[in-house]
Design a protein that fits this description.
Chain lengths: ~260, ~400
């Protein structure tokens, strides 16, 4: 079996007194969707930012396609074909949609910005994702939360990435757009990309992932094949419930879910 | 999969015809998005008032003087705009223009350098100063305010040191002084205007063709033609007036080239795009892989380099460099010009054209009040008031608009 597209060994990250990650291992193969789940503050976003070079790990080894990779900056991550949708989106409100989509990777023509090709690609990409926005020349500041999220997702697909990291990409999306994003995730898998998807919505996780990795208090808290996993087991791993308290934890989680929380 | 986006039925601005443009422009203005309109209206009002008070204000001689007066500080304002777009400030530009012009003067008069090499040396010093400011700001993480405040004081000190005993050096006649006292012959003035109009038209039409070939919507051609005609009228009238006096001054040519190059840099290159991104959301820019520090250092470098160019233009106009060169109101007017024109101090919004507009406003007020022999006490108060009104209009007009950070 060939090497995973992305392999993480012993990733640790400390913020002052908080040990956000402690010896986390993670593998994602090409053509595989790994769902990363865990409670709030479990360290999921920290893990993503470490891989993306935004907040490099204190310790740990990242390998890309079997070779050790040194990722200390977002540029280096991009050079390895890693694209990221951040939980806080990270868009420039003062720029329009097209400018945000291509930010940092603008196509040039005679050393000038190739606005025509950018705008054309933007139309195609957004149409594929069924994104509805007033115009691709609208400033991002005036978009709704979901529209902004759609733009952030669209942006990660520019420049043929090999590994896509999605940090709660559907959190603010409507029903149709969520379905589109899940479909897109499946499509990325078919195209042979490696995808890490963070979500608090277990239904989505079960619908789209191949494997589920649980992060609990900054450590690996369990791993499942999605096809063999039971909802209860995953919830138990997330909450860290023991066998006796298991039923109660499940009931709480379901009540929370029914109450409209993610 | 379709390749065009579905139109949002709630979208009002779908009409790309001329009429559609007019209605949508009307709607924008009604909703408070005023753009450059208040500045232009303010400028027209200013000119009417000064003309009524003194009929010499709009004379060919005085318009030429006005142009000669604004070129130096206007160039500095263009440079400051780059730093303002980052959401930072450069308080040192006045002193930098002073010290670089002092170096220019010393090189020409005491070291016997030619005008050309001396100009290059002065600009190189400006570049180096900008690199120092930018490096202290980004690498040493000092606030830009502090770095450039230290620069404001320190470079002025260096200027006094360079000028030495006399404290004032006259620039002998040569290419530097010729920038101010030489003018394009009338035919060249017309040629220049024609090149500008044709160039603008060619660029716009090429872009339009490229867009329509790519299947993208293009604006109404009537609108484009109106824009070209508008530019032709403005430039034509300007050249006509200037030719009635001595012609288009060389400094204005320099100023114009600097503005066009900087506008190109900001709007059409990835550097400019990245500068706006850093000014808008620095963390997003960093995550997008933009080399944020390089962009910020470049902005400070451009600011200081253009301050040096402004210093040279000021030395040309005065035919001398003194201890007060680059002091007094130069810094204040440069920043005020950019801000009056509509550049935001919070970063991410503005343009060099608005710096030009703002500079014309300040220049007109200064010039008009001078004609009326009003004291500089009144002048400072009036310009202070204009600055407040301009920023007030801007912040009021922004109330109705989304503000997200
Ligand atoms: N920049 C930072 N400085 C200090 N502490 C941080 C920082 N970023 C994250 N942390 C801490 O690290 C821990 C993990 O945070 P992280 O954002 O990775 O959680 P998460 O799993 O993404 O949670 P959520 O589901 O709420 O998004 C938290 O305790 C958080 O307070
Ligand atoms: Mg998170």
């Amino acid at each position: 079996m060939d090497a995973p597209a992305l392999q993480l060994r012993g990733a640790s990250k400390r913020f002052g007194a908080v040990q956000a990650l402690e010896g986390v291992d993670l593998d994602v193969r090409s053509g595989e969707v790994v769902a990363l789940v865990g409670d709030n503050g479990a360290g999921k976003s920290t893990l993503i930012k470490g891989i993306a070079g935004v907040q490099p790990f204190d310790e740990g080894e990242i390998s890309i396609a079997g070779a050790v990779a040194r990722i200390m900056t977002p540029q280096q991550a991009a050079a390895y074909g890693i694209a990221t949708v951040y939980q806080d989106l990270a868009l420039c409100d003062n720029l329009d949609v097209v400018a945000n989509l291509f930010l940092g990777h603008e196509p040039l023509k005679l050393r000038r910005l190739d606005e025509t090709s950018m705008e054309k690609q933007a139309h195609t990409l957004l149409a594929e994702l069924s994104v509805r926005i007033p115009s691709v020349r609208t400033k991002v500041a005036s978009l709704s939360g979901g529209q902004r999220q759609s733009v952030a997702i669209a942006r990660s697909l520019i420049g043929q990435p090999k590994v896509v990291l999605l940090d709660e990409p559907t959190a603010a999306l409507g029903v149709a757009q969520t379905a589109q994003v899940l479909q897109l995730v499946s499509r990325l898998r078919e195209q042979g990309l490696a995808v890490i998807l963070i979500s608090h919505n277990l239904a989505d996780v079960f619908a789209v992932s191949d494997r589920i990795e649980v992060l609990r208090l900054g450590r690996n808290g369990g791993a499942f094949r999605t096809s063999e996993a039971r909802n209860e087991d995953v919830v138990a791993a997330i909450t860290g419930a023991t066998q006796e308290r298991f039923g109660q934890a499940l009931a709480e989680a379901q009540a929370e879910h029914a109450g409209g929380g993610e | 999969m379709s390749t065009t986006m579905e139109k949002d039925p709630r979208l009002t601005e779908t009409d790309r015809s001329f009429g559609g443009y007019v209605t949508s422009a009307g709607r924008r203005i009604a909703s408070g998005d005023l753009g450059s309109l208040p500045v232009i209206v303010g400028l027209v009002v200013t000119w009417i008032i000064f003309t009524l008070l003194n009929d010499r204000f709009l004379s060919a001689l005085n318009i030429t003087n006005l142009m000669l007066q604004i070129a130096a500080t206007g160039t500095i304002a263009v440079g400051v705009t780059f730093v303002l777009l980052l959401g930072e400030i450069d308080l040192s530009v006045g002193s930098v223009s002073g010290v670089t012009s002092a170096i220019l003067a010393v090189l020409i008069t005491r070291s016997g350098w030619g005008n050309g090499p001396a100009v290059v040396a002065a600009v190189v010093v400006g570049v180096l100063i900008g690199l120092i400011h930018g490096t202290l700001f980004t690498k040493a993480r000092m606030p830009a305010f502090v770095v450039t405040l230290a620069g404001l004081i320190g470079w002025q000190g260096l200027q006094l040191y360079v000028l030495g005993q006399g404290g004032s050096i006259n620039i002998p006649d040569g290419p530097v002084t010729a920038l101010t006292d030489q003018f394009l012959v009338p035919a060249y003035g017309w040629g220049l205007a024609a090149i500008c109009v044709l160039g603008f038209g060619a660029v716009q039409f090429t872009r339009r063709t490229a867009r329509s070939r790519a299947g993208l919507p293009t604006g109404d051609v009537t609108l484009l033609i109106l824009q070209i005609v508008g530019l032709a009228v403005v430039l034509g009238v300007t050249v006509l007036v200037l030719n009635a006096d001595r012609g288009v001054p060389m400094v204005i040519l320099v100023y114009l080239v600097i503005i066009v190059v900087c506008a190109f840099l900001l709007r059409r290159t990835s550097f400019g795009r990245h500068l706006f991104a850093v000014g808008g959301n620095i963390e997003a820019a960093r995550r997008a892989g933009i080399r944020v520090d390089a962009v910020r250092i470049a902005a400070f470098t451009i600011s200081s380099a253009l301050a040096a160019v402004g210093g040279i233009l000021a030395a040309s106009r005065l035919t001398a460099v003194t201890q007060s060169s680059g002091g007094g109101d130069v810094l204040l007017y440069a920043i005020a010009a950019a801000v009056i024109g509509g550049t935001s101090l919070f970063g991410g919004r503005g343009s060099v054209w608005s710096a030009l507009l703002g500079m014309i406003v300040i220049g007109s007020i200064t010039n008009g009040l001078d004609l009326l022999s009003v004291s500089s006490a009144v002048r400072f108060m009036v310009i202070g008031l204009v600055l407040v009104v301009a920023v007030l209009l801007d912040s009021l007009s922004r109330r109705g608009q989304p503000q997200r950070r």
